[in-house]
Amino acid sequence: MVQFDNVAVRYGRGPEVLQDITFSLPAGSFHFLTGTSGAGKTSLLRLMYLSQRPSRGRVVLFGRDMAVAKRYELPALRRRVGVVFQDFRLLDHLSTLDNVALPLRVSGASESDVRKFVPDLLTWVGLADHLDAKPPTLSGGQKQRVAIARAVIGRPDLLLADEPTGNVDDHIAMRLMYLFEELNKLGTTVVVATHNENLVSRLPYPQIHLEDGRLRKR
């Protein structure tokens, strides 16, 4: 699903924020991405959702070497990746339902499917009473759950979540992790970046651990 070979990232003329990163993620696997703030977790995720190119090394996604992928191929590859961003990236002029429905509509789903699947998912994440609410009226935790619902609604091949439980209490955090687990059981490869050691300790998944831009064993 994902393969990195001696990958490094440098922004401008600064030092490398990732150095000699080599790992592979089998299809259908579930991993935590751990490390302190500034360790390079967000940069690693950006490489996986094709928002960042490596300064050196090789990134292979869905069996395609990104170094030789054509620009016109990238949108189709990105549509196979669901991303939960730390800053949510919701559209303020759209309702909760319409924000979550965006990936379905972009992929050509019918409105009957949208009306069937989106409310069910929003009920699961505890937002059944907020289908028509717009992001400026929601709390940080509610926005987080909208962003997660939007990322998983299309059942992506690869799900990347950057601190997805940072704005919710422990009960909601575990409920969201169960949602990721269910998606994983259906075949989605899942990577969850988190500082939450309690969460990591409660679930039996391996870690990709970063320290100062390098992979370390845990």
Q: Can you offer a commentary on this structure?
A:
With 218 residues, the chain is an alpha/beta fold. The chain has a single domain, classed as P-loop containing nucleotide triphosphate hydrolases (Rossmann fold). It contains 7 helices and 10 strands. The protein has helices at residues 41-48, 74-78, 96-106, 111-124, 140-152, 170-185, 197-202; strands at 2-10, 16-25, 30-34, 56-61, 64-65, 81-84, 158-162, 189-193, 207-211, 214-216. It has a 6-stranded mixed β-sheet, with helices on both faces. It has a 4-stranded antiparallel β-sheet with strand order 2-1-4-5, with helices on one face. Helix 3 (96-106) crosses helix 4 and helix 3 runs parallel beside helix 5 (140-152). The two termini are 22 Å apart.
Alpha-carbon Rg, integer? 17 Å
The overall strand count is 10
Q: pLDDT below 50 for ≥5 consecutive residues: which ranges?
A: none
Query: Distance N terminus to C terminus?
Result: 22 Å
N-to-C SSE string, H for helix and E for strand: EEEHEEHEHHHEHEHEE
- CATH level-two architecture: 3-Layer(aba) Sandwich
Main sheet makeup: 6 strands, mixed
CATH superfamily: P-loop containing nucleotide triphosphate hydrolases
The secondary-structure class comes to alpha/beta
Content of β-strand: 15-25%
Helix share of residues?
A: 25-40%
What's the helix count? 7
Mean pLDDT: 91
At the third CATH level, what is the topology name? Rossmann fold
3D shape: globular
Order of strands across the main sheet: 6-7-8-3-9-10
CATH class descriptor: Alpha Beta
Number of domains: 1
Q: Summed up, what is this model?
A:
With 218 residues, this protein is α/β, with parallel strands linked by helices. Helices cover 33% and strands 25% of the residues. It starts with a strand and ends with a strand.
